[in-house]
Structure formats: structure tokens, C-alpha cells
Amino acid sequence: MNSLLYQPREGVEFTQRSEIPLLKVQYSTFQTALFCLVRDWLKGKVGVGAPEEESVKNDITEVNDAVNGDGLKDVLDEETKPVYDEMVKIKVPGHLKVATSHRKWLRLTYEFLQKIGATFSDKMTALVRKHDLSKYTHREVLGYAVMFGDGSIDWRQLEIEAEKIEWDNTLHNHYAGNPHHPEYFYPLTEDGKRDKSVPMLKLDPENGKDYVDESIIDMLAARGERVLAKDPEINVKKWLAIEERYLFRYAEEDKVYVKECLKKVEKLAEDFLSDVENEDSFYGHFDDRAVVFKPLD
Question: 73 lies in a domain?
């Protein structure tokens, strides 16, 4: 396993498949086509939204080489070219763009939180670097492309069985390989629900708090990028107003910790942004909007 990716918890495995029903091909054929597609996307030969930062490019390249291209040929032929073209058609490059945009928002959110005074362990910078790199791998790209495409659509109601298979496969693998998701720690019970009897904070005393902190940064990054996308300015008060329905995934003790953290961040942001010079320092941090702190309507 590449050092930038995680292994599943004990008792959990990534799905193993020999065929891809959606593409009607052998798994190795799909994997080769994907390796070439990610490589071409990074070079700007297909799709848009590839990262400009060399360090980010290098991390994705490392994952693509080690995981997607592991032991496989790295050229398209008459067998793999149609699969490549079909993945372009179902917007796999669009998914890569969305994943890259979110990871950038995550890094910027982390920097914002640090600047206003939020504190994290020394591990967080490495966790942010690794965040969601699994979304560039053969285990996840198809399901995300099917469900969200290039980000212009929200959750779809999947009706085609092959698409449902891909989404279920992707979601299982993403949870299994990303400990910033509570689902990584909470095993599935026989009735299909998550066992939240033991919180992340206790299941992994060494790293659990860091993973919960990463989940908070992840939640804020997603909310900032999507929910506040059309707002003329980024109101931090609104940004932090996470609805209860987004917290149901946590065990009770983890949820209490998350709420306490959000309150602390709100106070830090209010104090920091009350200084006009500090407010001005964030202009253009995320995009061309000001970052402000205002009461909710």
C-alpha cells in the first residue's frame, strides 16, 4: 500500500473484483485505462482542473503510479482506448477536478483555522496532505463520476444497476480507506446500520482526536466550497452553522467534541475578524471574496 493511502481497519477489506459491469471489461483493462487517463489529466491533455502546485501534482502522480499503474502496461491500445474514451464520457476527468478542488479548499480551510488561532497536533499537516487521495484510485473514481460527475449535479437517484454497483463499491472503499470518516471506525451491524457504541476518540486513543479534527476541517471545506459558493462574501458565522443532520454520523461523544470545537472556532474567528486589518488579510484567501464575521439573519 502506498504511504499516502490508508489500510482498512482490522476485519474490513477493500472490495476485490475481476470485472467492471458498468464498462463491461476486465478489471485490469479498466485499471490500465484509468492510469493513462489520470496521467493525461495531470498533463492537461484531457479534462480541466488539474492542480498547478508541483507538490500536489507529485502526490497524485505517486498514487497513480503505485496504485493504478501497479504492474500494468502504461500505453493505450485497441482494448484500453475505448475504455479510456468511455470514462471521459461518464466524466471521470470531471470527478478528478472536483476532488482536486475540494482538497485545495481543505488546505485553505486548514490555513484559515491556524491563522485565527485554532490549534492542531503536529500530525495534521501530513493528514491534510493525504486527505482524499484515494479518490484518484481505481477503487473509487467510477462511483464518484457516476454520482456527481463534474460537480454540476448533486446526489443522483441511480436507477441503472451497474451504476448502483459502482456507487456502493466506491462508498465502501472510501469509508474503508479514510479514517477522517467516522464510518471508518464504526463497523456495520447485521441490520446495515453503523455501530457507534464506541467513539472514534476511544477506538484510536493515539490518532482518534486527529481524525475527528480532520473530519471537522473536511466538513467546513465542503460547506465553504459548495453551500457558500454563490454568496458575495464568506460569512464565517454562516460557514460554521453546521446543521444537526450533518452530525448524525458521529457517535455521541464524538459529536459533543465536534460541537465544542465549532464553538471554539466561532469565538476565535469572531475575535480575529473584529480587527479590520485581520479581516483584510483574508481577502482573496479562498477566491475573490472577503471573509467576514456577521450575525445570521
Answer: yes
Structural contact between residues 27 and 80, judged by C-beta atoms closer than 8 angstroms: no
Residue 118 placed within a domain: no
* CA neighbor of 133 nearest in space, from 166, 88, 180, 198: 180
Written as nine digits, the cell of 109 is: 480551510
SS3 for 78? coil
Per-residue pLDDT of the chain (297 residues; tens, 9 = 90+): 689 999 999 999 999 999 999 999 999 999 999 999 999 999 999 999 999 999 999 999 999 999 999 877 778 999 999 999 999 999 999 999 999 999 999 999 999 999 999 999 999 999 999 999 999 999 999 999 999 988 877 888 899 999 999 999 999 999 999 999 999 999 888 898 999 999 999 999 999 999 999 999 999 999 999 999 999 999 999 999 999 999 999 999 999 999 999 999 999 999 999 998 898 899 999 999 999 999 876
Domain that includes residue 63, residue range: 1-96+132-178
Distance of alpha carbon 80 from alpha carbon 28, whole angstroms:
10
Report the alpha-carbon distance of residue 68 to residue 31 in Å, rounded. 6
- Do residues 179 and 207 make contact, with C-beta atoms less than 8 angstroms apart? yes
Domain annotation covers residue 230: no
Overall number of domains in the chain:
1
Q: What is this structure's pTM?
A: 0.96
Rounded Cα distance between 189 and 185, Å, is 12
Whether residue 31 contacts residue 68, with contact meaning beta carbons closer than 8 Å, is answered with: yes
Name the strand (E) or helix (H) holding 149: none
Structural domain includes residue 86: yes
Q: Which letter does DSSP use for residue 284 in this model?
A: T
